[in-house]
Amino acid sequence: MNVDKPKINFGTRVDELLTMRNISARDFYTAIGIAPQAYYDWKKKDQVPYATTALKVANYFGVTVEYLITGETDNPLQKKVEELQKRNLELANKLRVIADELATS
């Protein structure tokens, strides 16, 4: 049985990477030298940037362009980093909940 993965667009994948690394959208698009509107078009209009910009984005995050476009990677180190970043984000969220509970008690 062939089960297709849900399609995640380029912009959504960039947002995931920003969230995992606690980087603001503004810091990101300023750092790679793109207009804010280009960044928002990737998300809202499901657009993919030109190859040179996609390469800048990939280099910024330390991932491949293939990963940004398809979500697939053959790099086991990259997969492990992503797993650890997701776990780190989950733990940070749990700590925030605990801190909020302690603050209100």
Count helical runs: 6
Mean pLDDT: 84
> What is the class in the CATH system?
Mainly Alpha
Q: What is the string of helix and strand elements?
A: HHHHHH
Task: Explain this structure.
There is one protein chain. With 105 residues, the protein is an all-alpha fold. The chain has a single domain, classed as lambda repressor-like DNA-binding domains (434 Repressor (Amino-terminal Domain), Orthogonal Bundle), CATH 1.10.260. 70% of the residues lie in helices and 0% in strands. The chain has six helices and no strands. It has helices at residues 10-20, 25-32, 36-44, 51-61, 65-70, 76-104. Helix 1 (10-20) crosses helix 3. The protein is globular. The relative contact order is 0.12.
Walk me through the topology:
Blueprint (H helix, E strand, L loop, with lengths): L9 H11 L4 H8 L3 H9 L6 H11 L3 H6 L5 H29 L1
Keywords: DNA-binding
Protein name: DNA-binding transcriptional regulator, XRE-family HTH domain
Pfam family, one: HTH_3
Give a short summary of the structure:
Helix content is 70%, strand content 0%. It is mainly alpha-helical and 105 residues long. It has a single domain (10-104), classed as lambda repressor-like DNA-binding domains (434 Repressor (Amino-terminal Domain), Orthogonal Bundle).
Summary tags:
single chain; mainly alpha; 434 Repressor (Amino-terminal Domain); 6 helices
